[in-house]
Specification:
five-stranded parallel beta sheet; Rossmann fold; single chain; alpha/beta; globular; 22% strand; 41% helix
Length: 164
């Protein structure tokens, strides 16, 4: 598919999607004509808590009010996924210096694979600068308050699956 500078991808495992992820997706939707949220179907790091169908469903429900967002699974290199949907940009959120170091490495690897696809970073809003999916899961495991961190359906299922 030919690439289009008005299409971007927002890749991630989204296990689970957080309000920080949704903030980046919504902000990207204001900058691009179409945002394709790519949900990693084959993680190389660890097994996800939620199925690919659950993760896609959570994002679709939470982003339903944003007209130019669609959600798709992928299990390829992110640059190959971007090309397959016609995107020329990969959008990622940055929370802290530690994110920058990792994302800079990934951007260079992606650039080596596909120099025509740009990595674009949106700084996290201050209210989300601490928010990580793994942290939310840890809070849920020990009965911490997560309702303000993730969409309501995500919070409910996390509490059901992880509460001790």
């Amino acid at each position: 598919m030919p690439t289009d500078s008005r299409i971007c991808v927002c890749p991630g495992t989204y296990d689970p999607v957080t309000n920080g992820h949704l903030d980046v997706i919504a902000r990207a939707a204001r900058l691009f004509d179409e945002v394709v949220v790519g949900v990693v179907n084959r993680s190389t790091r660890k097994s996800p808590l939620f199925t690919i169908e659950e993760r896609i469903g959570f994002i679709e429900e939470a982003a339903a009010s944003i007209g130019n967002v669609r959600v798709e699974p992928f299990g390829t290199l992110v640059v190959d996924f971007a090309r397959s949907v016609g995107a020329r940009s990969i959008i990622k959120g940055l929370r802290a210096i530690s994110d920058f170091e990792y994302e800079m490495e990934m951007a260079q690897l992606n650039r080596n694979q596909a120099s025509d696809i740009e990595s674009v970073y949106l700084m996290s809003g201050p209210q989300y600068s601490f928010l990580r999916s793994s942290g939310v899961k840890e809070l849920a495991t020990f009965g911490g308050e997560i309702d303000a961190l993730v969409p309501a359906p995500v919070a409910a299922l996390l509490k059901e699956r992880l509460a001790r």
